[in-house]
Design a protein that fits this description.
There is one protein chain. The protein is about 50% helix and about 10% strand. A nine-stranded mixed sheet has the order 1-2-6-5-4-3-7-8-9, with helices on both faces. Helix 1 packs across helix 6, helix 8 crosses helix 14 and helix 11 runs parallel beside helix 12. By secondary structure, it is of the alpha/beta class. The longest helix has 21 residues. Helix 9 links the parallel strand 4 and strand 5. It folds into two domains: about 80 residues; about 200 residues, Rossmann fold (3-Layer(aba) Sandwich). It is built from 14 helices and nine strands.
């Protein structure tokens, strides 16, 4: 166990203290861990020449790594604290790292580390993300609650991004049932307040809620992190639903990103006033309209569940191609 914690500390060191991009970090992991079969503990115990020879690193990158190496003790202490608080670390090399998320990122930009609290098996369910404005109107929130409840009741993992507005109501709709939901944080997992943790804890312990974060556990909320979080929200899902979007901002960027990730994008369409120009613009970009209000919600959402199940099966059987970190698959896969 102590060795595992030390290896985790080295992952934190490389990912959050080196100042390197995700692409460079993943290249190091591929060359050192995957191809050479060595641990990150061995990496940080090696000298600079070995780093340069094995990972083909420039002098500037080596200097950053050397500066990071001195911070290992602090990362070891953090890992012990996380373990005590039942917060777990998942690396891109772990078999449990979601393949669907890997396949959604271009090149090697996939987050090297995810922190989580809860049952990872929730990610093995078919998944549908619901995204929308923090300032959504009442009709959009009613749509969100109804859709989240319907999907969760029928076994889908409802994914949302832990902001006010649509995200909050999607979580509430899913947890009002006996279903499952994943909350992807726009900040570090230790930045959840005590009140938030207490509200989540019973559902986490019941195996119904999974909390995820790609950021350093103590990272504050900033706009750029919220935007990065959106890629994980949509990347974990087979299908993405937009409740309400402006023609710019986080929801818009997340929805456009979902289209770029080749996710089927369903967008609430309404004939009532006022209209939703952002939603209409997304439909014009390739989003599929979801009529609302709907006399029969099953008629609207049953096809989405069927499509999600089909995509889930296809993605589960599809190997990752080289541009999607196929070298991070377990040996023999």
């Amino acid at each position: 166990m102590e060795q595992d914690l030390q290896e985790q500390a080295c992952w934190l060191l490389l990912t959050y203290e080196s100042g390197l991009t995700a692409g460079i970090i993943n290249n190091i992991v591929m060359a050192w861990c995957q191809q050479s079969g060595r641990t990150l503990q061995e990496f940080f115990a090696a000298d600079q020449q070995v780093w340069a020879n094995t990972c083909h690193l420039s002098a500037g990158l080596i200097e950053k790594l050397e500066q990071a190496r001195s911070k290992l003790a602090g990362q070891s202490f953090l890992v012990e604290q996380l373990s005590h608080d039942h917060i777990h670390l998942l690396t891109v090399l772990d078999d449990s790292y979601p393949k669907l998320l890997k396949s959604s990122f271009e090149g090697k930009q996939v987050p090297p580390v995810l922190f989580y609290a809860g049952d990872l098996r929730i990610l093995k369910r078919q998944a549908i993300a619901i995204i929308g404005s923090r300032n959504a109107g009442d009709e959009s929130l009613a749509f969100t609650r109804a859709v989240a409840s319907y999907l969760a009741e029928r076994g889908a993992n409802v994914i949302s991004g832990n902001a006010r507005g649509v995200d909050r109501v999607a979580y509430e709709g899913a947890t009002s049932t006996e279903g499952y939901t994943t909350v992807v944080l726009p900040h570090g997992i230790r930045k959840l307040s005590g009140v938030q943790w207490r509200a989540l804890l019973s559902k986490i312990e019941a195996g119904k809620v999974l909390v995820l974060s790609q950021f350093h556990p103590d990272a504050q909320w900033v706009v750029s992190r919220a935007m990065e979080r959106n890629k994980v929200v949509t990347g974990l899902a087979q299908i993405v639903i937009v409740a309400e979007s402006d023609i710019q901002g986080g929801t818009w960027a997340g929805a456009v990103g979902a289209l770029q990730q080749n996710r089927p994008l369903y967008v609430r369409e309404t004939t009532s006033s006022p209209s939703l120009p952002g939603n209409q613009a997304l439909i014009e970009r390739g989003g599929r309209p979801l009529p609302w209000p709907a006399e029969n919600l099953a008629n609207v959402l049953s096809p989405l569940l069927q499509e999600s199940a089909t995509l889930y099966q296809e993605k589960s059987e599809m190997p990752l191609h080289p541009g999607q970190l196929s070298l991070f698959a377990a040996p023999g896969e």
